[in-house]
Amino acid sequence: MSARSAVLPRRAAWLEVTRRLPAATWPFAVFGALFLLGGVLRPSLLSLDGLWSTAAFAMILAIASAGQTIAIVQGGIDLSIANTITVAALTFLSSTQHGTLVALLLALAAGAAVGLLNGLAIAELEISPIVMTIATNGLLFGIVLLAFDFSQLTDTPQIARDLTSGKIAVLGTEIPAILPLGLALLVGLQLVLSRTGWGRALYLIGSASEMAALAGLPVRRIRLLGYVLSGVLGALAGVVIASYFAQTSVTMGDTYLLGSVAAVVVGGASIFGGSGTLIGTLGGALVLGQIATLVPVLNLGVNVQQLIYGAIILAVVALYGRRRADV
Amino acid sequence: MSVAVPARGRGLARLTDGFAGLRRQGAITPLAAFAVMLAVYTAINPDLFTRIQLQTLANLIAPLALVALAELLIVLVGGIDISVGAVMSLAGVIFATQMEDHGAGVAAAEALAAAVACGLLNGALVAYGRLPTIATTLASAFIFGALANEVLDRPGGNVPVEVTNATSGELVPYVPAALVWVLGAGVVLWLILNRTVVGRQIYGAGSSASALRASGHDPRRAQLAAFAIGGALTALAAILLVGSTATGDPKAGDPYLLNAIAAVALGGAAFTGGSGSVSGTIAGAAVLGTIGSLLFFAGIESYWQYVIGSLIIVGVVGLPALTRIVRGRRGAVR
Questions:
Q1: ipTM of the complex, rounded to two decimals
Q2: Domain spans in chain B, listed from the N-terminal domain onward
Q3: DSSP assignment, residue A105?
Q4: Is residue A15 part of a domain?
Q5: Is A314's CB within 8 Å of B271's CB?
Q6: A88-115: per-residue pLDDT in tens?
């Protein structure tokens, strides 16, 4: 009894320090620890090249999860991300004859249309985000199968490959171009989320939408814009994925359906909305990416990787994702 | 002063009561949608009521209907279960691989036990660990999926013809076994939900957990029960799927996740919890499961089923809000 009470204040002080750190610090700390662990187990992994290849994989997951982060922050979810990625990738590749920029814009426009559809149904018809985005995902799957001719979609424009998997020489090391570009995108978006009125309103809607409505915020319009942005980001992810891996398939987006939610949750966002950052999501993606790097090194199968993913999500949620006692 | 005559027992009153109950739980629209669908189907394809076609259709619908019922239970307690597809895969591969050595009965019991254990794990974490349902079941979806792959890493297993007959053949001529399994499970689930304490607690936990607690019940027990019963239903779905496809496949459950949630939505359940019905959910699954086959007989490219299925969901789920908006605007004009 007495020992416990003596420990309590010290623990509280320790908590006080850790509480002041931004939530996004934790996934990066875990990633750092996992990276060092990899180095201990297999010293050859402790190299910049190893870091860059894991980071590039994680950055692609982070970009695919950016729209998901925004959907979850506003208290929703976007399960149409899988086929948004596929539709955008196919739109991009099937219109490159009009120029790469036009193709990119068409793909983003397709994403915006998807987001608009989701947003209108969720904000105006008050359909549950899970249900609506599942319906949209199905709709898009139909479009993928009906509207695209896969035999023609093999060529990715050189510029698109240069901007994603192309190597840039920086300070004596070569990094994939997607890393600085993706980081700039995520930081820019996070600034929009945390510094603009719209972005801050999105967080408020995510934690207390009725309060936001009572305070006179145009909740529906803010939500709608949030889903449009999610759709555009999903489309961008589709273009990036198609360009980086230089291949497409009907199911190319499927791994990102649960993968994006996993990255957002591991990145420290609340699944109930109102908190979470794109930088945190990047951290979450780095953790998942580093696990994917470590598992084959230790001669463990992909099953073990999935097991660890599950365990990590559970651990993260158990640490700071609990419901309040009275809910 | 006069003692109210209980509506029960009077034929017409009982019927209207039942109707009101179905309407309250949102089951009328999906049931009507299914009736329309069936009418269109038989108009296009009068051969539906032949034995082989009834069987095929029942086998298409049955696994989806059962997983949808499992998902309904979690939706009723106010959550969403992302792991149903993975649990279905796991139960399926256990059933398919254990049959050869231990016989179908033992294999089915093992699949059932595994799926109920998965449900209990999810339920314990959600109810007693106070973890959010989506995140918990997202994590366990990865775990159960990995276990399914560990049991059987590619489609396989050996399914004897008796199992296929018992799950997806005919019980008696013109009565597909799969349909009997679904209706049986549906009746049992209806009885549990409407005639037992734990069933009422499941509805109560989703509509108002604090009121349930204030009246001396434990919402956590209801959540745990919902996940456990859901596990059993998912196992049955897996067994029927293995029976009708004659293989165990570690990825077989994956497509059922989103379809099960869609069927629950189409079945009229509220995703805020506490409202939804067994009959509506089965009708929702029947509608979604029939579209592909209907298009086939209508001579339309079957890929359209994904588009049409989505439009039906949005139409049915969005209809109440749409009429409200239209009425509201008319009111404003006046």
A1: 0.86
A2: 25-333
A3: H
A4: no
A5: no
A6: 999 999 888 888 999 999 999 999 999 9
